[in-house]
Amino acid sequence: MQTSLLSHVENTEKEILRLSKEIESLENSIEVDPEIEQLESQNSKLKYQIGHLQRAIEREQSKRMISFPTYFSEKIRSVVSDLYPGINVKIEVGPNTSKGKNGDYQCSAAFLLAKELGKSGTKCNPRDVSTKVSGGIGPLDCLEKVEITGPGFLNFHLKPSFVSSQIQDILLNGVRAPPCSKILKIIVDFSSPNIAKEMHVGHLRSTIIGDTVCRLLEFMGHEVHRVNHLGDWGTQFGMLIAHLQDKFPNYSVESPPIENLQAFYKESKTRFDSDPEFKQRAYQRVVDLQGGNEEIIKAWKMICDVSLFEFDKIYERLDIKVSPCGESFLPKENGRTCS
């Protein structure tokens, strides 16, 4: 029997050797399409580039501070989608208001989950839901423990060592924005003074609030367009241009001294209110301006430039950056009809 077994082993080894040689022969006889080789090479390069980009993204995200409410909410949402497919509830994590007695952050989503599960025919109490959710969160570098209190509140306790490292990081590198899930293009319209008039407190209020909003959005990483929608079109310009023509008839070749536009505006307004003939000419200048009369356009730009120069002094002093985009942006210059 032993002889028979040895013979069987030898035959098996010979068969394995024969098959190996046959496989090797087949592999050598197969010609690889050059296009396939090229595609495989390109695929390897793309995989390398993807890995490089992913590492770059991870490095960039590591430079940003953690938003714990967002971070824990995303973790809970992931666990809930695995435990209860098809159940959608609002999941919010906020600071614990009990001054550290029950952790640093708290979530009450278990109550909403239990209610939705009950509607679908699965009866359970919020505390059971919280137990299952907490078990699925898993260990995290920043988390000391997840505790369930009361009828089903989830409480997150941060590691003191992690909090300490975050404080040290802020001291060394300053405050950084948390990761931004989606970069948005945002237009902020603020300041918006009127040409030939001084800024009043309403404009200053809008300027400060608008700049604050812009700085916050820019800090978060969004693409922000700071639009200063100037009042640089309308009847008042017919009044100003007509007064300019009367007072400085050589304005087109000699720059007129109209640095004090506020006083210049008051003079033209007084004439507009008291002189019917001047009022009629002012209305005609508006028609000329809207019709694209070159001489009138030049006078209009001259008045706007003086006013913008004064506005820029204020913006520079306040360290505020704006992009002028006045009412004149809308008419015929764009080839579009606006209403």
Entry keywords:
339 residues, 4-stranded antiparallel sheet, 3-stranded parallel sheet, 11 helices
Question: Could you please describe the fold and organization of this structure?
Answer:
This protein is about 60% helix and about 10% strand. The chain has about 350 residues and is α/β, with parallel strands linked by helices. Helix 3 crosses helix 5 (about 125-135). The protein is elongated, with a radius of gyration of 37 Å. The chain starts with a helix and ends in a 15-residue tail after the last strand.
Helix-strand layout with pairing:
Blueprint: H1 2-29, H2 34-62, H3 68-83, E1 93-95, E2 105-107, H4 109-119, H5 126-137, E3 143-149, E4 153-158, H6 160-173, E5 185-189, H7 201-219, E6 223-228, H8 235-247, H9 261-274, H10 276-291, H11 294-318, E7 323-324
Parallel strand pairs: 5-6, 6-7
Antiparallel strand pairs: 1-2, 2-4, 3-4
Helix pairs in contact: 3-5, 4-5, 8-9, 8-10, 8-11, 9-10
Runs in which pLDDT lies below 50 for 5 or more consecutive residues are 335-339
* Proportion of strand residues: 5-15%
Strand order within the widest beta sheet: 1-2-4-3
Report the strand count.
7
The total count of helices amounts to 11
Mean pLDDT: 82
Order of helices and strands: HHHEEHHEEHEHEHHHHE
The shape, in one word, is elongated
Largest sheet: 4 strands, antiparallel
Separation of termini? 104 Å
Helix content, binned percent: 55-70%
Rg, alpha carbons: 37 Å
Structural class: alpha/beta
Provide a brief overview of the structure.
The chain has 11 helices and 7 strands.
